[in-house]
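Quick start: read one record
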Amino acid sequence: MNDQSAQQDLFDPQIIPSRLAITAMRDSGYKNTAYALAELIDNAQQANATMIEVFCFQKQEFVQQRTRSRVSEIAVIDNGNGMAPRTLRMALQFGNGTRLNDRTGIGRFGMGLPNASISQARRLDVWSWQNGPDNAIHTYLDLDDIEAGTMVMVPEPSHDPLPEHWRSVSEDIGKSGTLVVWSELDLNRLTWKSAKATLSNTARLVGRIYRHFIAGGRLSIRLCAFEEGAIASDAYAVVEDPLYLIPSPTLPAPFNTTPMFREVSESFEEIEYKGVTHKVRVKYSVASQATIDQAGGNDRGRTAYGAHARGNIGVSVLRAGRELMLDQGWCIGYDPRERWWGAEVEFPPAIDELFGVTNNKQAATHFAELATVDWHELAEQGDEFRDVVRHLKDEGDPRGWLLGLADSIRRNLDELRDVIKGQAAGTRSTRRTRHDAPDDVTSATNKAWKDRSKERPIEGDEKPNTPEDLAEIKTDLTDNKEYSEADAEDIVALIKEADLKVIFLEAEFPDRYQLFSVEMKGNVTEVTFNRRHPAFDDIFGTINTVDEDMKALTREELIDRLTRAVNASKIIFAAWARYEREAGVDRAKALQKVRFDWGQIASQFLQPEDDL
């Protein structure tokens, strides 16, 4: 045979040659084995199953001169409705199924069962029954046969009673149900090689994906590992709520029985699409005060529950109650405080196209894109927000329908971040670092303040604070600056014991423009920094004492934070320079005098560097 004849024999005139298509489909993008298993759980839940069992079998293999446990077979069995022969055959076809036009549940794409299965295994067997397991029907897919060209159609399902082996391991073989078995597993495709690791990671994922089904008592998911015929592990998936409004046994006490976060709000955004108004539910939560109290004065980010929260950062996107993704694109990547808020967005399948739902139900691409897109970037000259929305809709761009939702989420997350900043109030500056002593910067500032008073006394500066003065300060701290009762009492006690004349505080101002305020309370001067000012994070946010272990930061991360603080300081002084330039000649001279006098006082305050 010549080369031309050989090439002709290799040529397949099909638009999508089956052998090549199968290879491409195997790389269809499941994030890991747990996500592939979630597809099978979707099918079972859509078939009204109340109990789903995931079995993972492993055996000992000799690998690289040592014995290791390796997964040999994975199965999912449910007590759902089961399938008739025609439905079962369609379920194993790629892109086909009975729910392709169903916009009421979590299915519809017709890719889940075969796609998820071949991404992990070379052999897929399915038994299904609607009148007892003795009347089960069975069919299969085999990649060796497909690649060899000997299997071009899904085999006609035939009567095949559910094998006794599967009946013996299941806790709930119902009158109807389905069993899916993956065999001839590709170890290089499995994310985890042992049964225990596979199921423990799957348990946490499905506990999050199906949390509302589990919490509502509508679904139980059992995960059981076997080795050499014996049970190695056996547990049920428990709720994993990234909003931390549902207690979970995976959290340490007290958050295993009480919510770790508090609900901030729940609302519905209306989206009109193709003449129908659809409601998108949005819920927000924020860490409770207990997360700080339980840390006992230490960084709450270093606690077990802080580490747990770090694994659930992002906006949870739900479709028909089932989570598609935990989208971290809405987060400030470098900020550890992002773990202390939660957000949940739930939309109906009827607007899948707007959200950009992928057929493996792992992402909502259009929604995710808006996390990093500001509407101003889409505007033409002179456009306002409503103009941008109208233009996008006219062009059929899904972002036109989602832009209002994205803008609302962004504003709400900014408010949550302000709340979280407020939880750190009282932990910086004035708070004690030693028994009955203020922190170093407060001590140094008060010494410089009193030294200055000897040269330029302030009226009433030498008078001690009366009980009435201290009561006024405490009221101001709790009522106006939202300090906790305990923090307010601590600060007032410190003022009295250390005879403080100036203290540093934090608060949320009504506006974002004042960087700080100066107020007299009794004979104490309060210097209060505005947490809503953009400079606050860049300067004071370099160290978040309630949120993280600074020792865990790398040298590069520490340098980055210090650089941000220095750069923010430079920008602040540049803003002052601009203010002088805009003031006009006469007023600028007065401001220059203010700048000189202020600099002189700053020089005196900073002089005793050893006190810092």
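Residues 440-611 form one domain.
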